[in-house]
Specification:
Oligomer: single chain
CATH superfamily of the largest domain: Spore Coat Polysaccharide Biosynthesis Protein SpsA, Chain A
Number of helices: 17
Strand content: 15-25%
Number of strands: 19
Radius of gyration: 25 Å
Helix content: 25-40%
Number of domains: 3
Distance between the termini: 46 Å
């Protein structure tokens, strides 16, 4: 079995690939991290703080950063002033932690640009991005960092509560942190959780479900990444539109194989209510950012399903490897044209062969007018479209029905696997007679865990699972046994396939619900054991009682749409 190649993976700071924990899907709970205060950190952390006009809020934020229970010699703070007028007054130190101020020209909404500027300026092994209007719990940095000491491709996300900080100053934060915590400062004041995040976490079993859209939870107010991974994805994208830059940053990290970890002990308090506190404002913000997210983060619920519609980042990238020794020009042309004739145009096609190959040169001439087709070598193609979520290898003798690519995409999503091996009728079931469809995320994760390229395919199957499917089920055939001209089956066949898919989905849902209940009970016991304050212990015990009673957080969450803004 062969799978589409992954782009080269850089060396990491946490050790050789063979020493890294192997996490299945996004099962971050398979990792074991130390309790807060029970271990000795060794990795450096840069706290990157983008700021614009936060003259009153920034001193409280810096006071909470100065009070972190993390060795100050391992910390630095980088404040990026996005053209505040007047400029922010940034001290050289916050307690014992050095502070660097960087100023950039304001060009509209500049949070993404400021975060990238700060990230590329920072020197820490871990980059922790926090907003300039939050007050961090004293263990916030430690809670993030313990995961990064355990695995080198974690992306950790903290939590925040919105609360009024009127009449609270930086000195108050410093004293409260020294006395055991910031929570006492705001006790009794009305507090609001990030409801849409809680809803998404409830729907995804705290990001442990094997879903392809877990990245939607990424918010720039408290997110920590390895510095090498930050650089690999090019930092935060810059679009100048609120609420999409951190979402797309999260998508890119997720697609590069990161393990997303939500840690409730990495807590903070936002100084004041949400920026978008009413539903009308949220809906308007979603409308503004939707075109950007749709183009740069392939997901069916964001993209318009219109024939012929293409996007900046294609949903699928199909490689057709050719060679004068094994492929005729006509055979390859028919394969490529059957892919181009598919119902979805949300696909990029790469025709690969070594430079100088006669078939490649002829196909290059044929495809001169096709924007969706690139004729190149295999290594170059593997690095093209790095954030396309699904990559295929299609032998040139394959023929696809008009709905084949959509069926492949849907089957991968249905089975929630890392690799789909489609056995082509009329061809030997080997590397030359199988269409391989793989999750880019799965391949990237596997490639990080081994120094031997030949082991990547086995690791994809081990960590993300794999399925073998007959080509007839997906409208995929060959020269000898082409697919039906009208698609992959009759109307009756299509109804049967839909019913089979619905039955399979119901079985998968039942299995997930059973597993989710077990995991929630374990989580509830863990929260009781980790509680550091009587009030927290009582809250954890109440949560355990609700879990044992069978009340599911996901069923009681508010039904607001996901809202990455503010």
């Amino acid at each position: 079995m062969s799978i589409p190649a992954a782009a080269p993976v850089p060396a990491t700071v946490a050790g050789p690939a063979s020493d890294q924990p192997r996490v299945a899907h996004n099962r971050w709970d398979q990792l074991s991290v130390p309790p807060l205060g029970s271990w000795t950190p060794t990795m450096t952390v840069s706290l990157v703080v983008p700021a614009y006009g936060d003259h009153d809020e920034l001193p409280l934020t810096l006071a909470s950063l100065a009070a972190q229970r993390y060795p100050p010699e391992l910390l630095e703070i980088v404040v990026v002033d996005d053209g505040s007028d007047p400029p922010l007054d940034v001290p050289a130190f916050a307690g014992d932690v050095p502070v660097r101020a960087v100023r950039q020209v304001n060009e509209g909404f500049g949070a993404g640009k400021a975060r990238s500027t700060g990230g590329f300026t920072a020197t820490g092994e871990i980059l922790l991005f926090v907003d300039a209007d939050v007050v961090l719990d004293p263990h916030h940095v430690e809670a993030h960092a313990r995961w990064h000491h355990t695995i080198d491709h974690a992306v950790t996300m903290g939590f925040r509560t919105f609360v009024d900080f009127a009449d609270i100053g930086a000195d108050d934060v410093t004293r409260a942190a020294a006395d055991g915590g910031v929570a006492a400062l705001v006790e009794g004041r009305e507090q609001q959780d990030h409801d849409w995040i809680e809803k998404l976490l409830g729907e995804t079993d705290q990001l442990r479900e094997p879903r392809g859209d877990l990245w939607r939870v990424a918010v720039g107010s408290s997110i920590a990444v390895p510095s090498w991974l930050f650089r690999e994805v090019g930092g935060f994208p810059v679009f100048g539109i609120r609420g999409c830059e951190d979402t797309i940053f999260g998508y890119r990290l997720f697609t590069r194989g990161a393990v997303l970890v939500p840690d409730r002990e990495a807590h903070s308090w936002h100084q004041g209510p949400r920026h978008l506190d009413d539903q009308a404002s949220r809906d308007a913000a979603i409308t503004r950012r939707l075109p950007v997210i749709a183009n740069h983060a392939p997901a069916r619920n964001y993209r318009r399903s219109v024939p012929g519609r293409a996007f900046a980042v294609p949903y699928l990238a199909a490689e057709v490897p050719v060679s004068e020794a094994t492929t005729t020009e006509e055979e390859a042309l028919r394969c490529i044209e059957s892919l181009l004739a598919n119902d979805t145009a949300d696909v990029a096609i790469g025709v690969t062969a070594p430079a100088g190959d006669p078939v490649r040169e002829r196909l290059d001439l044929w495809m001169a007018g096709q924007d969706r087709v690139t004729v190149t070598d295999a290594a170059t193609w593997s690095a093209t479209h790095p954030y396309t979520p699904i990559r295929l290898t299609v032998p040139p003798a394959v023929r696809t029905a008009p709905d084949a690519l959509v069926r492949v995409r849907e089957r991968l999503a249905h089975h929630r696997v890392g690799a789909l091996h489609v056995v082509v009728p009329g061809m030997a079931p080997d590397a030359h007679g199988t269409v391989e469809a793989v999750s880019t995320r799965a391949v990237q994760r596997a490639a990080r865990l081994t120094d031997r390229p030949g082991e990547v395919a086995a690791l994809v199957g081990e960590l993300f699972e794999e399925r073998w499917v007959p080509g007839e089920d997906l409208g995929i055939g060959s020269v000898g046994k082409p697919p039906p001209a009208g698609g992959s089956g009759t109307a009756r066949d299509a109804r049967i396939q839909r019913l089979e898919a619905q039955l399979g989905a119901a079985e998968d849902t039942l299995a997930r619900l059973r597993r989710r209940r077990v995991l929630r009970i374990a989580d509830a016991f863990g929260q009781v054991a980790r509680a550091r304050r009587p009030g927290a212990a009582m809250a954890a015990l109440r949560g355990l009682a609700r879990t044992l009673a069978g009340r599911d957080q996901a069923t009681t969450a508010r039904r607001d749409p996901p809202d990455p803004a503010g």
